[in-house]
Each structure stands twice: as C-alpha cells, then as structure tokens.
Amino acid sequence: YTPGGSSSGSAAAIAAGMVPLAIGTQTIGSMIRPAAFCGVVGFKPTHGRIPADGVIAHSPTFDTVGLFAADVAGVTFAAAVLCDGWRSVEPSDRPLLGVPAGRYLERASGEALQAFRAQVERLRSVGFTVRAVETFEDFDQVVADQRTINRYEIAQTHADWFPRFGELYREETAAAIRDGLEMAEADYRRALRAREQFRDRLGALMADAGIDLWITPAATGPAPRGIASTGNPIMSLPWSYVGWPSVGIPAGRPRSGLPLGLQCVGRSGADEETLNWVAGLEAVFSAAG
Question: How, if at all, do strands 130-134 and 97-101 pair?
Fold first, then answer.
C-alpha cells in the first residue's frame, strides 16, 4: 500500500521505528496524508513558521516545512526549537471542535466518513463539544483557485531550470509546469485575492461559531493498494490553501485494518495552542486503542 505523498519516506521511517523525528514539506497534503496512511503524527505549522530556507520551492504561497513523530509530544518538542517565535502555553480548557459540513466532507469516501462519524461520537462521549458548521459552499472554486496559484508558481519557480533540464523532470511535474506557463498573471493575481477573501471569511466564521479546532478526516480513506497512486490530498487542500496549522493523529483502523487519521486545524499562528489541544484528542484515541 502507498505510504502517501512526497514526504511519505519521512512518515514511513517514523512508522518503522527507524528514527524518532523526521522533517517533511506540504504544499497541499504531502504530510497529513502520509501521516494518516502510516499511522503516525504529522504537524504542518502555520505557513512560514519554520523557515523554508534551502528548500527547492514548488509553490511558495503554500509550501510549508513540518514534522513527523510517533506522538504529539514528539512534534511539540521539535516545534519549540524549529518554529520562529515559539511561545510556552499553559494547559487550557477543552477546545470547542468544529466539523465543516457540506461539499468538502462529501469528497471523503464512505469508509472514511463512517470512521469519522465514529471518531466524533467518541469525542462527544468523553465530554468534547463538537459543532457542525455549514461552510465551503464555494469549495469547487477554492479547488480551482488553489490550482491556479499552485501551477502558476511552480512554472515561475522552475522558469530557469525547465528549459534546460525539462527531459529530466518527472512527467507529472513537467505537465504542471507546462500548465502554469499557459496561465495569465492576471488570473494568478485574481486567485490570490480570492484566497485572501476566503481566509478572512473562514476566520470570521470560526470566531462567530466559537470554534477552536476544526476536525476532519485526514484523508479520503485508507491507503490505496500499490504505489501507482499516492492518494488524494483533497482533505488537506482548504487548510493548506489558507496556511493554517494542521495536525494529523492516528484515530483507529476500519475493517481493512489500515490506519485512519484525524486532521485537526487551528487558527493562523496558534500552533502552540493547537498542539496543546490536539494532545488531549490524541489521548482519547490512544485510550480507545
């Protein structure tokens, strides 16, 4: 079965016990999805909180350096060293959890949604408040705008290299670059403005509903068989689109016996609080086995 996207080697190394800590990067879902498939913890901080100096860019608007470990304590220990401006936070009350109901969740498979509903009920049974909120009515447009930004930026990033070394690129990457070269700058600028507006609306919705953490399936289902596909990153797309901190934690296994993860998303810049709260959720699922 596939271990996931482009940072899957790091996730698999944690799962195999080869290393206690590993670094990865996420543009759309290349950390949260591998963490889910491999049954480990993945932490994608707020965009830019871990410097990306020296990383060959894909899409600088989205590219984020993050961490894998066996548990939330492990990524928190490393995040305190690597994240710029890290703050100590005191344990706080249980967060109010939000579920983004609607078109977004419909992208998950039936198996993933069944497992997610069981995860939500488990959290409610131990005293967490979980509130479903209708959102992402324009999810298809969000996906389209993310693609525009992503493709345009990868084409610009590789503008010097691709004409000289194009035959050495993986075909999927070369196709993305060619696609980006056909995009107009005006469309790119419009997509950036749409992203800012979406982020503002989502932040206001979170505040109005009193939500501290969003919770969602970490992937559309368990890892696909074989290595022809790395799985679908769509469950991570809106959160990478806005650059907010995300944590993927193991949260059980369906009938297939393969790991399934829970994705937890906090407010921009609130990485410390997010990890603190997610440690409490991790304890619930660890106790449940």
Answer: parallel
Q: Tokens 């650059």 sit at which residue?
A: 243
Pick the closest to residue 35 from 66, 64, 8, 75 (CA basis): 8
C-alpha span between 225 and 179 (Å, rounded): 29
- Tokens 């005006």 correspond to what residue? 186
- pTM score of the predicted model: 0.96
Q: Are 217 and 113 in contact (CB under 8 A)?
A: yes
The single-letter code of the amino acid at 19 is V
pLDDT by residue (tens digit) across 250-283? 998 877 789 999 999 999 999 999 999 999 999 9
Alpha carbon distance 49, 51 (integer Å): 6
Query: What are the CA-CA distances from residue 90 to residues 68, 272, 274, 277, 284 (Å)?
Result: 23, 10, 12, 11, 20
